[in-house]
Design brief:
With 244 residues, the protein is α+β, with helices and mostly antiparallel strands. 38% of the residues lie in helices and 38% in strands. The protein contains 7 helices and 12 strands. Strands 1, 2, 3, 4, 5, 6, 7, 8 and 9 form a 9-stranded mixed sheet that branches. A 3-stranded antiparallel sheet has the order 10-12-11. The radius of gyration is 47 Å and the shape is rod-shaped.
């Protein structure tokens, strides 16, 4: 009789032992995914090697579609997680153990999930809009500096063009070539052109209010260049402009 009871106890122990010794897990996780598919899993858990930083073990990409798959076997007595996808993401497919809720915060999709007494699993297929991929280009300081330099170069070229055009107009003023003339000589030429009649050196000196020696020197320069004729009348020199 005792032998039969002992045998029954032994059989019951052998059958129930795997059930009582099976390990259980728990997890309270935050999961961050960046636009390049790198994942950081942080939080509290007793599941081995579940917490990782900047890993690509759980993501893959085909064309423009990203696939995130975090599946862990074993019984989780309870788990809770917050999954944050990159800015500009849109979810095409999602499957998770337990219950989930999807939110949006500052342009990012956030998946909140929880469950009890089941394996932990979250599978998401998502896309990232192109505007997010080009964010680096939009704010690239080198690109902005290049744009500023181009604008500065255009302004300089425009100013040079305007300055050269003004010079050209001066040189061709009233049909006379002012090229190579200094400022005083240009003043004398314009005075003779505007008066439309010969003037004495004394008249030019008084009208322009410049020293006598400067008038003589510049009139001599204009005469050498063939722009004026000088005729002596008594004690004065009559200055006559040549026709162009």
């Amino acid at each position: 009789m005792y032998k039969q009871i002992f045998l029954l106890i032994l059989i019951f122990t052998i059958i129930c032992l795997p059930l009582t010794s099976a390990e259980t897990y728990y997890a309270d996780l935050t999961i961050e995914v960046d636009q390049y598919g790198f994942i950081t899993i942080d939080g509290i858990t007793n599941y081995p090697d579940l917490l990782e930083k900047n890993t690509e073990n759980y993501t893959s990409k085909k064309q423009s579609y990203w696939l995130l798959n975090i599946t862990k076997e074993g019984n989780f007595t309870d788990f809770v997680y917050v999954l944050t996808l990159p800015e500009g993401s849109s979810i095409n497919y999602i499957k998770s153990s337990g219950s989930i809720r999807i939110e949006e915060n500052q342009g990012k999709l956030i998946v909140r999930g929880f469950g009890e007494n089941e394996p932990f699993s979250i599978v998401v297929q998502y896309q990232i809009e192109k505007s997010t991929d080009n964010e680096f280009i939009k704010f690239d300081p080198v690109f902005l500096i290049l744009i500023i330099l181009i604008i500065i170069l255009i302004v300089i070229l425009v100013r040079i063009f305007i300055k050269e055009r003004v010079k050209t107009e001066e040189l061709k003023e009233n049909g006379y070539n002012f090229k190579g003339l200094n400022q005083r000589q240009k003043q004398i030429m314009r005075l003779l052109i505007d008066n439309k009649m010969p003037l004495t050196q004394t008249d030019i000196q008084k009208m322009l209010n410049i020293p006598k020696a400067a008038v003589s020197r510049n009139i001599r320069g204009l005469e050498v260049k063939g722009l004026i004729d000088k005729e002596q009348i008594g004690m004065s020199n009559l200055i006559r402009i040549k026709k162009p």
